Structures are given as structure tokens and as C-alpha cells.
Amino acid sequence: xxxxxxxxxxxxADGLNQALQQAGYRVSALPLLELVAEPLDTIQQPLAEIRQxxxxxxxxxxxxxxxxxxxxxxxxxxxxxTCQWVAVGQGTATVLAQAGIKAHIPLLETSEGxxxxxxxxxxxxxxxxxxxxxWRGHGGRQFMLRxxxxxxxxxxxxxxxxxxxxxxxxxxxxxxxxxxxxxxxxSGVSWQNxxxxxxxxxxxxxxxxxxxxxxxxxxxxxQAHTLHRFGxxxxxxxxxxxxxxxxxxxxxxxxxxxLQKCQQT
Length: 265
Known about the structure:
Layout: E1 3-6, H1 10-22, E2 26-29, E3 34-37, H2 40-47, E4 55-58, H3 61-73, E5 84-87, H4 90-97, H5 111-115, E6 131-137, H6 142-149, E7 153-163, H7 167-174, E8 182-185, H8 188-201, E9 208-212, H9 214-223, E10 229-230, E11 236-237, E12 240-244, H10 249-264
Parallel strand pairs: 1-2, 1-8, 4-5, 4-6, 6-7, 8-9, 9-12
Antiparallel strand pairs: 3-7, 10-11
Helix pairs in contact: 1-10, 3-4
């Protein structure tokens, strides 16, 4: 069976890892990101403006949990606010629901999917002057932030920063003993960290790269021709990037099942 490398942060990877293992696939974990919370005194001022905003956009479960924790410390009850809430996906919405918040969720769990929601469409009931608050990590969701900022007033609250986990450098080197055939990438920062590890320790080139998000997929597709390994016949073999509709375990298992069939033919 195919060997899959899951590069999601540890706290978001376990459910998918279990689903892939139950489907018979060998799974290795190499988190390419870890999240470090920002201290309250650096986010208190912008977060306190939440009573003035019309929409709060929450881009990850971590942003949801850290934002809610900060509101609690500021004695702000989120369920009593009049704003609408947008969650990037079901995981984020679940965290918000625990605080009594019902959020809008896009069909496609990407920036493009969130921007397509009705809450962001301009009409007579949606004035261009409304204020949007954006809960994210440093450097996250830049495309969506630019799109919103071009049309609305946006308060960006950077609740955490992301970094490459130290232990991932050692774990990367251990992969040379049994390289993965499938690489899962779910963010642009993860991809950059993967390339950084390759430059530092030598590239590991999988057969397939499963990518969440159209923009990241296009970027990786353009760069894939610069990555290669040599097959048994001495010819260069390049990875094939494939676009994922979502990170739903059933979706990924279905894609892997198709790839496995290709391996066996």
C-alpha cells in the first residue's frame, strides 16, 4: 500500500491519520507547522473592537479557540454580540459552536470558498462601510485579507504565529530510509517549509503531492518540474500535483484508492 506523509499540524492530523491507517495505508507524520499563541497584551486592543464589527472571520480551529479564550479574559461574551461569524470549515465552526456561536461555513474550505459566501456579497443590505474582523495567524490567509481590505474596513487580529517544529528536521532526515510516495500539503507556508528542509538536508521527491487550495496547487504545479528523482531506468521522475476538494478523510481515502489502483496496473 502507498506510504502517505501527512504534514498537518499535530493537533489537526490525528483524525486523518487514523482514517488512512484504517483504510490500509501506511502513514507517517511530519508536521511542517506548529502554532504559538500571542500574549494577550499584544491582541487586547484590536480584539476589544469586536463590538463594532459586522462580521468576524475565523480561519482555523486554533484561531477560534485562542480568540474565544482572549474574549473570556476581556469579559466579552461572544454569543451576546450582534455580529455574524464565518468559519473556514466544520472544525472551526465546531469550536465556535461550543461558545454558542452559529457560523457560516463555505462549501469549499479555502479563502475563495469563504469569499463566495453571501455575507460578503455587496447589496442594499450589505453596506460597503461595514467593518470585518479577521482572526488568523501571522501571515495567514493573505489573499483573502487583501480581497476584503480592498472593499471593506478590516481589523486583523494575529492570534498566533507559525513556525517549523524543531523535531521535524530530524524526522525529515529519517524519511530517507523509507521515502513517502504521497505528500499531503494544506498551506503555502507548509510547502515553503518542505522546500526549506529539502534545501537543507536534500530533497525527498514523492510520486504524488495532494494539495488543498487552488492557488497553492497552481504554485506547486509550476514548481514540480524543478523537483525530480531518478527511477530504476535512470530517467528523471517528477512528482504529480493533484488538487484536493477538501481535507475530509473520506475524500482523501477515495483519491488514494484511485492512486493505489494505478500502482497495481
